[in-house]
Write a structure and sequence with these properties.
The protein is of the alpha/beta class. Helix content is 40%, strand content 23%. Strands 1, 2, 3, 4, 5 and 6 form a 6-stranded mixed β-sheet that branches. β2 (58-60) and β3 (63-64) form a beta hairpin. It starts with 11 loop residues before the first strand and ends in a 5-residue tail after the last helix.
């Protein structure tokens, strides 16, 4: 699976206010429920919070990959958010986070879920990509940077 199969330009956001991990996850939950009406904002939020309780999805270098399985989700759905200000995300390296890729997958998606997370982790391990994402303030360019298979 490629990132452009789960992420759309409309779900590529720039300058979102952070505040806290909980606030960002709540913002995303409401946003994605507006984008995909069959998803329930409360369920998305509670499942993301439950996943974070198992261990932070902050993977380091200012990046977090919050994710969960969700009912009524027919296919993997991604949203990329570049925060206006960095926030504490309890990342493994202790660094604050400003690049967040949120992933929702169908409840029965096991292998595909893991492969998508591995792809995202690999993509965000690219220092040049992270720098480029932090330099641009254009959602279209953010989308092109993150979704293009050439930028891994």
């Amino acid at each position: 699976m490629q990132i452009n199969e789960i992420l759309t330009l409309e779900r590529t956001l720039f300058g979102v206010p952070g505040g806290s991990k909980k606030r960002v996850l709540e913002y995303f939950s409401k946003f994605i429920a507006q984008q995909i009406p069959q998803l329930d904002a409360e369920e998305v939020f509670s499942r993301l919070i439950a996943r974070e309780r198992l261990g932070s999805t902050g993977i380091g270098q200012g990046v977090a990959l919050p994710h969960c399985r969700i009912s009524h989700c027919k296919e993997a759905v991604g949203t990329f958010i570049r925060l206006r200000d960095k926030i504490d995300f309890d990342a493994i390296d202790g660094q604050p986070v400003d690049l967040i890729f949120l992933l929702l997958v169908p409840e029965e998606a096991n292998e595909a879920h893991l492969q998508t997370l591995a792809l995202l982790a690999e993509r965000f391990s690219n220092e040049t990509l992270r720098k480029e994402l932090r330099k641009t303030d254009q959602p279209k360019q953010l989308y092109q940077l993150i979704a293009s298979p050439d930028n891994s």
